[in-house]
Design brief:
Layout: E1 4-5, E2 12-21, E3 30-40, H1 41-45, H2 56-59, E4 64-65, E5 75-76, H3 80-83, H4 94-104, H5 114-121, H6 125-129, H7 148-164, E6 168-177, H8 179-189, H9 192-211, E7 216-221, H10 230-236, E8 241-247, E9 251-257, E10 262-268, H11 276-301, H12 314-323, H13 325-331, H14 335-338
Amino acid sequence: MSELATGSAPESSTIVGIDEAGYGPILGPLIVSAVAFDVPVALLRELKHPADGPDLWKVLSASLAPRHNRRRPRLAVADSKRLYSGCNSERGLVLLERAALVFLRQVMEQPASWRALLAGVCPGICKQLDEYPWYAGGDVDLPVQCRPDDLATQHNAVSHDMAANGVRFRGLWVEVLPEGHFNERVKATRNKSVVLFGLVTRLLQRVADAVGPRPLRIWIDRQGGRTSYAGPLMTAFQEARLEIIEETETRSSYRLDTPWSPWMVRFVEKGETHHLPIALASIFSKYIRELCMLRFNRYWASHVAGLRPTGGYYADGQRFLADIEAALIAQGIDRGRLVRCV
């Protein structure tokens, strides 16, 4: 299914989390993901402030935890930076992959490969990626590091816990912006943050289209030092009526009456530590980006003997570019298609 969403539960409200991975690197794509849950409306009635959200770590504490703990076999759903050990680590992807694939199996059959995953969550992106030699024609088998039996056990535990508490994982939506396309958009807008916000608003529209005319409560990890999002929101959704709820140093909240349904949109500082949906969106974004980087590194390793992989961040990215310089020249690759502007 091209848009991953399941039917909604009665007497429930839909909450959404959005986060990115790859905003800062000079190599690899920018990924932004949105996840949605249906939760009992009773959980929302208990909130003291309209910008607060239900604590799904507490609600689903039988199967989920906000940190990895070897002594308690619950699924860790946390900031992706806490779960990922780096491309050169023995543990590497395993915690990210476990969380991502367990939740993905709530709405689709486990994809057999990176390309199958992308086809399900970001329709059309594989054709775009094929414009780049380091992505074209290759694939990555899934799972990369997790054991299938471990995934099945965790999936069953999470499924039973959600069902017992009236919670349903509604779906996953992803935007992938490859390097050259990223540069083109930054050149057109002259602002990286505008490019990122454009992907966020596209995701909001995709979620709204998928879940239908029901109210949405949306949490987004705050982007940089910005505290006011009223202008960009009004520009993106010109048919909506916007009301500012609050704009503080840590949280910015807005009510949008859209033609589809009313939305409550909140931008939260360090949102992945406060809201499970943001943490899960962070996991999906990081996992998909690292799969892209796995394919990226395999391609260049096939052209440069002894090449060490890179995560694409500035200092190591510069080392990597120096290491592949001869291959880059030999292939006649435009650096503007490979190296992202900063």
